[in-house]
Amino acid sequence: MTASIHRLSASAAPSLDPIIALVASGMNQVNAVILDRMQSQIPLIPELSGHLIASGGKRMRPMLTLATSSLLDYPGTRQYKLAASVEFIHTATLLHDDVVDHSDMRRGRKTANIIWGNSASVLVGDFLFSRAFELMVEDGSLKVLKILSNASAVISEGEVNQLTAQRQVATNEDQYLDIIGSKTAALFAAACRISAVIAERDETVELALDAYGRNLGIAFQLVDDAIDYASDTATMGKGVGDDFRDGKMTLPVILAIARGSADDRRFWTDAMEGRRVSDADLAYAQTLLVQTGAIADTFEKARLYGRRAIDALGMFPPSKAKAALVEAVEFAIARAY
Amino acid sequence: MTASIHRLSASAAPSLDPIIALVASGMNQVNAVILDRMQSQIPLIPELSGHLIASGGKRMRPMLTLATSSLLDYPGTRQYKLAASVEFIHTATLLHDDVVDHSDMRRGRKTANIIWGNSASVLVGDFLFSRAFELMVEDGSLKVLKILSNASAVISEGEVNQLTAQRQVATNEDQYLDIIGSKTAALFAAACRISAVIAERDETVELALDAYGRNLGIAFQLVDDAIDYASDTATMGKGVGDDFRDGKMTLPVILAIARGSADDRRFWTDAMEGRRVSDADLAYAQTLLVQTGAIADTFEKARLYGRRAIDALGMFPPSKAKAALVEAVEFAIARAY
After folding, report:
1. Interface pTM (ipTM) of the complex?
2. Of A57, B29, B124, B167, which residue is most buried, by most CB within 10 angstroms?
């Protein structure tokens, strides 16, 4: 790991501030749609949805829809409902993920499944998912509907794939990239791609924005998976070592297994299969991950995907929106440093 | 309860045979779409989906789409994909329901959540739900998409409402009718209504088919809820008394509470709150349900909703399809006798 990978540019530490500033007024519109459409006659629905939605997530995906719309100088207002729709899909996924992973913390708060139970989280997730489709239908573009319904199917395939790979030490890097490409990057890609549709730009633009979102999503997930071993609870807002205890076959672990001794492999097998998951085991795992360069190489791979995301924007002329989108990538891959 | 409520007509016992015969060749097309679209690179998805889908459900909802298309002499083929989409929504709901209710039996087989776990059922349900939307998008009618996405949102609202009402003895008949109107009747209504859209008939026809499906759905659920106390496991394909043990506030219980003594109400409170759920308690509950006329009146109410479903078809001229749709209602409300 050299200094050069810490930043793609030489300026101050990258931040989300430019993209946040770019989309600030638009996000007010999106948040209004979100608040309006999570309402229901059934009080538990806004209560549970609001707990997660108001918990200070970054709202990366709707911000990307707005920022890419801005990149294309789209003059209309369709992006607000669609960005809300994207966030609803994401929120539904998080609610179901936390049930699947038995998570007790997210964004520094108790998860909905801990407060209201698994059943409520499953059903309110279904509600938000349906609401997402209602918003898309109101927008009225079959092309947008196709992109987002396909992304939804791919996300759930990725989630099932991840579940299947859980505790399976034989999982390899290709399978891992498949999983994160589906469960994370597909929605990033769709969130960006739909801007090209509403701005009525040609397929080249659609594919460029898709590639930007997809590569950013992969970079984002790679960094998340690295800092699950490299961070503390306060930074993550969720428990550090969650992936370790869940036996999630993330890239750091896959690399450490490939590069480790026979003893290491026995340790990882015991750990991923749930027989060695104490704090001391986690500390030992972290040592192995550093020693083998697995963490460093995961970050390095994130940097390369981030670079591809930025390169995908090559066809667009310089603008505030482009600069903000570039810096969002730099932020995503610099989070750990 | 008099003999007259056993049948709406005087002929032989009503059956699903006419509707099954009417849609038999169409259902082959629908089943082919279902089998094709439940496939995935992730083996667990077709495995788990297939377990439930091949388990011999009646496929009432897709049959209704086909039968109502036939009623309107719709000459095209769009109903096949849409009927498959409706069945996918239903299947996704069943998978999630069984997780929510901790069910271990459905259609006489172990539930998917028992075999593969809750996580797999939640995620594969999400996949089928996404696939349902992909099928609708392929069909390409925004009007159909609106009807079915709205139905999906209403279904999940109904499911959350039911969860909220669980173990709450204060739940009344209006709330109960709200719940079953949402969780069951909304999809029956949508399954029928979309036929009017693809056959390009006017709103009067849409509303008539909607009313047929909605009232049939309510009748269907009322009978289901009555025979949960009046049947045995072999007949139901799921455990008798499931609703009792889950503390579900179904109409039989609501009526028995309203009509019971103070002692009865104490019993029902203890039972619905989970403190009296032995086999002896269930037997006692069944006695109270019969004594108060709660079961008989639930069936009687089902008959009246069934009558409304049949009346909604009044505008259509006699045909094989109409006769089959009428007899399907008669079958639904005669199931318990």
Report:
1. 0.93
2. B124
